[in-house]
Amino acid sequence: MRKLTETEDLSAPVRAALGPGCRVAAVDRLRGGSRKGVYRVRVDGSPVTSVIVYRWAEEENFWPGGRGSDAGDPLAPASGLTPFLAARQKLDDLGVRVPRLLLADTGRPADVAVVEDLSTDTLEALLESDPARAAAALNDLAAQVRVMHGHLAPEHGRTDAPERGGTARGASCEQLVLDRALRDLEEAAGRDRRLAAAHGRVRDRLHGLAARVAPRAEYGLIHGELGPDHVMVDADGHAVLIDIEGLTHFDVEWEHVFLRLRFGGHYPVLSRPGLDPRRLDLYRLAMCLSLVAGPLRLLDGDYPDRAAMLGIAEHNLREALALLPPVSGSGRNREAAAAEPHLG
């Protein structure tokens, strides 16, 4: 049985952040964290009534196997205090709003960061409950995204790579995306007969799309998982970015594919001219494959919200197959015979 943190585990860093006179009154683990624990800690005896604590520890990581973070690979999972601090500093320098840092510490027994508790409002929730407030925050987010994507570097790579002694690897962003997409295809095809039946077509489509992409020598700064659930809205209505550990210089088309997927009908506010349509085509298929293989891999462990992960995988599997050119004859018959879903 997985044992997550308890009140006494968080008391010391919270007192160190707010002063010895404060007392932890309640601790709530917030939903959604798969690589770190995210806790709202309510306190007495302090000018603030609550803070958010990020906690990076083995027991907080629901991903089975391969739990290390490779700073040399911009697409590798990012987790830990070091990438968090590097990303936060970079965004703060650019004037992009992130939660105010109250404490960063190691070894209590886990790495922790204590940050301001902005509100209970994510942009995702506000898009449903308060469209007017959400619209203002969405416009603010668009302005911040333009700042990030306009901050160009001559090489791709994670913001924490220098701190970890790593350097960016891979001949190009498109090659990194292609390589990962092929790995995701192999993994996901082993789990679902529909993707297995279309394996050759998906592989050929990936190679064909990658071959059309021309070289590039400048890379914008991207969040990596910028969905509306990773944007808080503060009391002044400003968008505040969270879950920032994956911040990296990369093709901004990779981010725009994710933004379009997650924001849906609200995406036009975030769109920008001049995106490379060939990169978008490759990255859209690759993103779908990632969002099939990743959730199913997570479910090899004991992640609690299993239905949500299966839903993500199923939706993106169908999207990936819909992106393929049509087939005829025996190929169509083989895929029809494999149409029975059996994810999970």
Structure description:
The chain has 344 residues and is α+β, with helices and mostly antiparallel strands. It has a domain at 123-337: Alpha-Beta Complex (Aminoglycoside 3'-phosphotransferase, Chain: A, domain 2), CATH 3.90.1200.10. 44% of the residues lie in helices and 14% in strands. The protein has helices at residues 7-18, 81-94, 123-129, 131-149, 161-164, 173-189, 193-197, 199-211, 252-263, 277-298, 306-322, 330-337, and strands spanning 23-29, 37-44, 50-56, 101-105, 111-116, 157-158, 220-222, 231-233, 239-241, 248-250. The strands form three sheets. The protein has a five-stranded antiparallel β-sheet with strand order 1-2-3-5-4. A three-stranded antiparallel β-sheet has the order 6-10-7. A two-stranded antiparallel ribbon has the order 8-9. Strand 2 and strand 3 (50-56) form a beta hairpin. It is globular and about 70 Å long. The protein starts with 6 loop residues before the first helix and ends in a 7-residue tail after the last helix. The model has no long low-confidence stretch (mean pLDDT 88).
- Known CATH architecture of the domain at 123-337: Alpha-Beta Complex
Shape: globular
**Biggest sheet: strands side by side, in what order?**
1-2-3-5-4
Helix-and-strand structural type: alpha+beta
Beta-strand residue fraction: 5-15%
By CATH, the superfamily of the domain at 123-337 comes out as Aminoglycoside phosphotransferase (APH), C-terminal lobe
Query: In percent, how helical is the residue content?
Result: 40-55%
List unreliable stretches of 5+ residues. Answer: none
The CATH class label of the domain at 123-337 is Alpha Beta
Count every helix, treating DSSP H or I runs of 4 or more residues as helices.
12
Average residue-wise pLDDT: 88
Oligomer: single chain
Summarize the biggest pleated sheet: 5 strands, antiparallel
CATH topology-level fold name of the domain at 123-337 = Aminoglycoside 3'-phosphotransferase, Chain: A, domain 2
Alpha-carbon distance between the two ends: 21 Å
Cα radius of gyration in angstroms: 21 Å
SSE series: HEEEHEEHHEHHHHEEEEHHHH
Q: How many β strands by DSSP?
A: 10
